[in-house]
Write the structure tokens for this entry.
Amino acid sequence: MTTRSATPEQLIAHAKHAVERARAAGADVADACLESSRAFTVSVLGGDIETLKQSGTLGLGVRAIVGGAVGFCSGTDLSAPGIDDLARRAVALARFATPDPANGAPTLEEAGPEEPGLAESMKLFDPAAMELSPEAKIDMALELERAALAADPRIKRTDGASVSSSSGAFAIANSHGVSRSWEGTSVSAWVVALADDQGGKQQTGVYGMTKRHLADLPAMEGLGREASRRALARIGARTVPTQRVPVIMHPDIAATWIAQMYDAFTGESVLRRSSWLTGKLGQKVASALVTLIDDGALAGGLGTSPYDSEGLRTRRNVHLQDGVLQQFAYDHYSARRAGVSPTANGVRGFASTPGTGYHNLYVAAGHTSANEILRGVTKGFYYDDQGSFGYNPVTGDYSFQAQGFWVENGEMQFPVDGVTVAGNSLEMLQHIVAVGSDLDFRTSVACPTLLIEAMTVSGS
């Protein structure tokens, strides 16, 4: 059974103690981050249990700033001597580091008052997910695999099915008096169906999702059927001649693309001049159909938290509004360097210092159904799976081995593999001519179906 290894109240007490010890050791500014988590995962294969894995984390990271220089130490010994040792070592390391006036931690004025009941209103914690027994997860995983196999006689095997649940708590405190803590849960189910194809080939169909609440996880039967449908649809796949055609991006592919692009939307990359969006703030960089949002306060979201990992209240940040670049994302350090306000995008774990990251990243849904988008394409490529990596975060160049379906006269004609889809992210954004209404969060990144006016599909 997945249970709490430590409560938010326990973690925040340790965090405050660590900050006190760092200040006593000579830190001008200090913060402490604690994480506690428990997870249990069941994997099955061929009707048998393959693995049962239980894992847990309970750790503390102490960051000390002395004369503008940072020292950092992390560990798992939360005894009073252990915390004192981490704090003293963090201060000692800071004395050997290079000063940077941008180093610091949010003040109470920047963070604002703590809001009682905020975490609860965001629906992050589900007792049913936390208390899901190992036996129940085993039954769910076996049912998931059986559902995939029963969907069609051509699905004779799977590459496994898994069900997992986890619970965790986080706390951050600093020497300016900011102290925040919260907890959350998640439960997930995934299966890989295999369909026999000609020449001994196998076609793969992967499907599943992760949710905060057990009740939001669909029935195993439906998940299994969808994985099998995806595998069966690929039977007989072949290549097509190289050409430049419209490309329909399936939501899974589109979501992966916006996650890859995210670094270009961070102030950190702009400061390094390694973003292909540098100098374009306030400019139209995408189709007017595109609005890109990162919402840290989305109720029930997998990336949701009441505060970021530095203690700032999370919020809805709009990076693209109707194609116009509205803002970059900043943690506290990069915001100080840029001379702007942070956007509550600080991310960290107990074993790392803060950086910039997204919470719930998505493209807002359009008004056209996925079927309508498909019907509007006379000749093109429906792109729903990808192979080896080919994204350049500095230039935005995009090139991936791809699988999908050839489209003619608004219908999928046959499955396609052995091709590469290539373009440049800035040009791709500017040439999005349709955005679907099918936005669905299965992870912390989501995107509806996208139609890109033209991309190079390289095949035979």
